[in-house]
Amino acid sequence: MRPKTIPYSPRFLEVFLLYCHSAGQWFAIEECITGEFRKFNNNNGDEIVPTNLLEETMLAFSHWTYEYTRGELLVLDLQGNTDIQPLTFNP
């Protein structure tokens, strides 16, 4: 349940895994999102310096996943457009 002080709920895009027989390769694909794209953190845990509530929320979410799972999981590589619509992550 999100706090009432956060006026939106980010969503994650579905990711699909496809195998191309002719190339012998696996591909991960997802819906193309438009708008101003922003990367909030990366796989190394490097973060942006937050300048608004959306950015603060994304960084807090990464931290929350670590705390909630008692250090077992950490969701990183959060990215998306800044119109408070889809956010995505690399599986």
Describe, in plain words, how this protein is organized in 3D.
By secondary structure, the protein is an alpha+beta fold. The chain has one domain (11-88): Alpha-Beta Barrel (Protein kinase-like fold), CATH 3.20.200.10. 18% of the residues lie in helices and 25% in strands. It contains one helix and six strands; from the N terminus they run ββββαββ. The chain has a four-stranded mixed beta sheet, with no helix packed on it. Strand 5 and strand 6 form a beta hairpin. The protein is globular, with a radius of gyration of 15 Å. The chain starts with 10 loop residues before the first strand and ends with a strand.
Secondary structure topology:
Blueprint: E1 11-12, E2 15-20, E3 25-30, E4 37-39, H1 53-68, E5 79-81, E6 86-88
Parallel strand pairs: 1-6
Antiparallel strand pairs: 2-3, 4-5, 5-6
Query: So, CATH architecture?
Result: Alpha-Beta Barrel
Distance between the termini: 24 Å
So what's the oligomer here?
single chain
CATH topology: Protein kinase-like fold
- Count of DSSP strands: 6
Helix/strand class: alpha+beta
What is the beta-strand fraction?
25-35%
What are the defining features of this structure?
Protein kinase-like fold, four-stranded mixed sheet, protein serine/threonine kinase activity, 91 residues, alpha+beta, nucleotide-binding, ATP-binding
Compact overview of the structure:
By secondary structure, the chain is α+β, with helices and mostly antiparallel strands.
